[in-house]
């Protein structure tokens, strides 16, 4: 991988601006939590780290100025994939926008049927992931019904099979992002892509989930969504596909990153509190159904001891 950095006029002589590029092999980068940007007349350089693999761990890529343009290039030798040469990136990653969820699910079912019947792909090599977490259970159940009408078997891990059974011979797998982690398939359909970025407080988490879903594929990845939001997101994806081995971005301000992380932690805390309140209300209802006062008293004492 090669990293090229722009030279701000006011920082031409600084250590962070010297040199135009240097070779690096990497798969991902992140900003050091130790780096803190304090407003000054001249921006303070921050360190960016990269990780080649879990064995080598994280290494410093260099120091960069917030607001500086940074271009990272990945040589094909670093991650060779024969399919990229045979069919090209734009065939491997495809995007499709629909007016509503029903037409989106019907299209996925049609494509899945073609994959099995025309492409002769084994059903267990097809994975459908829903990013619409709140409605994934309903959407995937509807998709399973549509597939059943086409004589295609499908499973939902944790519902139709034990939670530890993710793939089953002769069946397409339908799931949300969480059971999908650590699993792969030859073709992955990702529905509900418009959910990425709908909540500004969860933009980091939602983009991470989209990345996780897209990397579940060993071959083809089909992105689908509804409405204007999906259309905007897919334009971003298509822009990346124009030159997938190179990415240019602006080095972010650590304060902005910290605000996003704080918002994410706040949302997680709020969800934990809501879940605890829901459980408490459910427990209160169940206790009210117990006729034996002594048994109810014992349960209450056990709860006090646990807290």
Strand order, main sheet: write it out: 7-12-11-8-10-9
Q: Decide which structural class fits the backbone.
A: alpha/beta
Low-pLDDT runs of 5+ residues are 8-34
The biggest sheet, with number of strands, parallel, antiparallel or mixed sense and barrel status, is: 6 strands, parallel
Strand-residue proportion: 15-25%
CATH architecture of the largest domain: 3-Layer(aba) Sandwich
Please count the beta strands (DSSP E, at least 2 residues each): 13
Q: Could you state the order of secondary-structure elements as H and E?
A: EEEEEEHHEHEHEEHEHEHEHH
The amount of helix comes to: 25-40%
If you compute it from the alpha carbons, what radius of gyration comes out, rounded to the nearest whole angstrom?
Answer: 24 Å
Tally of domains = 3
- Shape descriptor: globular
Kindly describe this structure:
The protein is of the alpha/beta class and 307 residues long. It has three domains: 2-75, no CATH class; 78-244, Rossmann fold; 258-306. The chain contains nine helices and 13 strands. The chain has helices at 82-87, 89-92, 101-117, 136-149, 177-180, 203-214, 227-242, 254-288, 293-306; strands spanning 2-5, 21-23, 28-31, 46-51, 58-64, 69-73, 93-98, 126-130, 154-155, 172-176, 185-191, 217-226, 246-250. A hairpin with a 6-residue loop joins strand 4 and strand 5. The longest helix has 35 residues, at 254-288. The protein starts with a strand and ends with a helix. The model is unreliable at 8-34 (pLDDT under 50).
């Amino acid at each position: 991988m090669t990293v090229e950095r722009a030279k701000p006029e006011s920082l031409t002589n600084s250590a962070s601006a010297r040199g135009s590029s240097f070779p690096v092999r990497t798969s991902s980068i992140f900003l050091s939590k130790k780096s803190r940007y304090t407003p000054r007349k001249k921006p303070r350089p921050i360190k960016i780290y990269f990780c080649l693999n879990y064995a080598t761990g994280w290494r410093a890529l260099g120091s960069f100025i917030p607001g500086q343009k940074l271009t990272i290039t990945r040589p094909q030798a670093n991650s060779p994939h024969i399919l990229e040469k045979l069919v090209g990136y734009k065939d491997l990653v495809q995007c499709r926008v629909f007016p509503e969820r029903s037409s989106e699910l019907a299209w996925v079912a049609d494509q899945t049927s073609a994959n099995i019947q025309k492409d002769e792909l084994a059903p267990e090599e097809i994975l459908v992931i829903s990013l619409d977490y709140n409605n994934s259970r309903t959407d995937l159940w509807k998709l399973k019904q549509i597939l059943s009408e086409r004589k295609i078997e499908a499973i939902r891990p944790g519902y139709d099979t034990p939670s530890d059974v993710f793939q089953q011979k002769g069946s397409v797998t339908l799931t949300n992002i969480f059971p999908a982690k650590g699993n792969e398939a030859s073709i992955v359909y990702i529905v509900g892509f418009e959910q990425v970025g709908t909540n500004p407080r969860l933009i980091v988490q939602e983009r991470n989930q989209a990345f996780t879903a897209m990397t579940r594929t060993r071959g083809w990845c089909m992105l689908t969504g509804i409405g204007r939001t999906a259309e905007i997101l897919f334009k971003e994806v298509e822009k990346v596909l124009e030159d997938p081995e190179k990415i240019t971005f602006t080095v972010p301000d650590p304060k902005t990153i910290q605000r996003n992380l704080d918002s994410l932690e706040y949302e997680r805390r709020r969800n934990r509190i809501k879940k605890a309140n829901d459980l408490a209300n459910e427990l209160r209802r169940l206790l009210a159904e117990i006729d034996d006062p002594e048994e109810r008293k014992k349960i209450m004492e056990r709860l006090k001891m646990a807290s």
